[in-house]
Amino acid sequence: MSRAQPLQPLNNTQLNNRGNITPIKGVRRSKENQFDPVPVHGVPAAPPVAVAADKPKKKKEKLSALCKTPPSIVRTRNGRDYRRGNFLGEGGFARCFQMKDASGQIFAAKTVAKASIKNEKTKTKLLSEIKIHKSLKHANIVNFIDCFEDDVNVYILLEICPNQSLMELLKTRKRVSEPEVRYFMVQIIGAIKYLHSRRVIHRDLKLGNIFFDPQMNLKIGDFGLASVLPSLDSRKYTICGTPNYIAPEVLGGKNTGHSFEVDIWAIGIMMYALLVGKPPFQAKDVQVIYERIKKTEYAFPADKPISEEAKVLIKDLLSLNPLNRPTIDEILNYDWFKGPFPDKTYEESLVSTPPGFGKISKTQSSINFTNTKSSAGIYTPKNKNPVEILRSDLQSEQPKSLLPQSLSPNDTRNKYEEVNPSVLGKSNRRVNFNSNYSTTIKRLNQICFETYQNMRRLEYSKHEQIVSEELPRCENPILISKWVDYSNKYGFSYQLNNDDIGVLFNDENTILKVHNGSKFMELIYHENEGWTCIENSIHHPPSQVKRQLEIVDFFAKYMNSNLSKVSENEDRKETVFLRRYSRTSDYIMFEMTNGNFQFNFKDHHKICVSKSGLAITHISPSRIIQTHPLILVLKEGNFPVEEVPECLEKINVIKEAIKRKAFKDSSA
Ligand SMILES: Nc1ncnc2c1ncn2[C@@H]1O[C@H](COP(=O)(O)OP(=O)(O)OP(=O)(O)O)[C@@H](O)[C@H]1O
Fold this sequence. Notes:
The protein is globular. The model is unreliable at 5-47, 50-57 and 392-438 (pLDDT under 50). Helix 7 (261-276) runs antiparallel to helix 9 and helix 15 (441-461) runs antiparallel to helix 18 (647-667). It has two domains: 12-341 and 352-375, Transferase(Phosphotransferase), domain 1 (Orthogonal Bundle); 444-506 and 563-667, POLO box domain (Arylsulfatase, C-terminal domain, 2-Layer Sandwich). It is an alpha+beta fold. Residues 82-337 form the Protein kinase domain.
C-alpha cells in the first residue's frame, strides 16, 4: 500500500511560469499527422510539443513511459483509499488509470511519474496544470477532484470520461455530420468562453483533449499547456501546441507573441477536421505543416462536401491575422448555427450519425440551440447590448417579478419578500479573494468562526464586570448603503458608504469602481484559491470588460437616481468588497471581505458585526449610525443612542446565522 500526500501549495510566480518550456528541436511525428495520437490500448500518444520550427529534427523521449502502473490501492494522507482500475490511456506526460473510492465512485487518475519530474521546468509545468485546472468549474470542463502523491507518482484525480474523446469518435466515423458538429461546437465554445473570462488560454485544444462524459457531454481536459494571462493585453511567447493545431502567430514565436486567439484558431481546426475528416494543414512532415499554417494553405476537398455556411465560419476562424478571427460571442452569430441542431449527443454518435438529424425543424433547432447554449453557460441577449436590456427591463412593467420591487434600504413594503430562487438563480454566491489583496479564504473562515465564538462568549460574560481597557475601539465600518439584486441576469450590484461601486457578477467575478479614482478593479475568482485582482484604468479598459463596466455604470446611475442611502459617506480607508450574500424572509446578510457581516432586517434596521464579533453597529431607518462594543449592548439590552426594536432577538438571529456559516464553511 502506498501513502500519498497532498501536493504543496503553489505560489503566484509559479502560475504563469510556463514560458520555460524547453523547445523540442524539430519534432517529426508522422503518426501525429493523421489526427491526434491514439491514446488507447496502450498505444503511445504523441505529446503536445514546444516547437522550434526551423531546427534539425530529433525524436523526443516520452515522459509518460516512465510512469509505472500504480499500486492496486493508493491511500491519501487524509486516509482516503482509492482502488486502481483499468488503464485508460496515455499522453506524452502522463498515464491515466481508473480509480474507485470507498463509495464505489469511479474517477480517472492522471498519473505522472516522479521520475519524469526531473527538473524545475517540468515541476513548474505540472504545478501550473494543477493550479489552473483546480480553479476551474464548468459543465464542459473535466472536473478536477483532487491531487495527491506517493513515493513514485503524482496523481491528478479527475471526473471520468468513459466515452473517449472526439479524436476516437472521428477515427471511427471518418467524418461527422454538421448537426452533430454544431452541438459539439456550442459545448466547446461555452467552455472556452468560460476559460477566457478567467484569462486562461488553453493552448492545446485538439480533438484528443475533448472528452465525452457518461451523458455524452463534451468536456475539455488536459491543462498542461494552459496559461493565465496577467492582463488582457499581455501576450505569451512560448512556442507550444500540437503541430496540426498550432496557430500561425505561435510559429512567429518571440517576435509576435500570442493570446486568446490561438484557442479560436484551434476551434477552426477542430471544426474542419470533424467535417472533412482530417486537419486542414495535415502533412507527413511537421515542417510542411508549419509552412502551410504560416500561409494558411488549405482547401475544402470537393469529394467531402460541406455547407457554404460552414466554410464561411472556418475561413474566418482560420484567419492568419488573429485580430480578424471572430470573438467567441461572434462565432455563435454565424449563419451556420441556424442549421439543424440536435437536442443532445446520442451514444449512437460514437459509431454513426443518429437518424433524422438532418430533418430537425427550424423551430426545434432554434430551441435546441438556445438550450445548449444556456447549459454551456452562454447567455446571448439576442445581440442586444446588455445595458439596453437592463434599461428596458427596469423601465418595463415586467421586472417586478425579476427585480424584487423594493431593492434597497428605505424602500417600500415588499422589500423583504422572499425571493424565488428559481427566478433569481443562485441565492448564495461563493466568493473569496486574493490573499495579496486582503486576507485568505482560510483566514476569512477563521474570522467567521471567531465572530461566532466571541458573540457566544460575550453572551455568557455579560454579567461580569467590564474592564474598560479591554473594550474594543469602535469606529463605523464600511457598509453596503445601496444594492440591486439583479442576479437573475447579471449579478448583484452595490454601493458602499465610501461610494465605491461594485457588481458581483453571476460568474462570481467582481468589478469594483473606486470612488473618485481613475482605476477600477477586476477581481477574478478562482475556486479555493482566492481572487486575482487586476487594476485597470477606467480610461483604457480592456475590451473584454467594457460591457461589464457599462453594466456597473448603469447600476450606479440607477442606484443614484432611484435608491436612498443607508448611511452618510465615510472616508475611503480600505478596499472592501462584497464576498457573498444570502437572503431569507427576515433579512439579507452581506459578508464583506474584511470579515464584517451586515444584516439588513425587514423592519429597516441594519446591524453590522465587526472586529470578529467584538463591535456592533446599528443603522436606524433614519440613518443614525452608532458603533459600540458588543458587550456593552448586551449588558444594557440595547444600543445607548437610539433603541433598536427587538435588539437582543436580532443579535441572536445574527449569531445563529454566523454560526451556520462558520460550520458550513469549515465543513466545505
Ligand atoms: N478524465 C478522463 N477520463 C478518462 N480518460 C482520460 C481522462 N483524462 C485523460 N484520459 C486518458 O488519458 C490520456 C492521457 O491524458 P492527457 O491527455 O491529459 O495526458 P498528457 O500526458 O498530459 O497528454 P498530452 O500528451 O496531450 O499532454 C488521454 O488521452 C485519455 O485517453
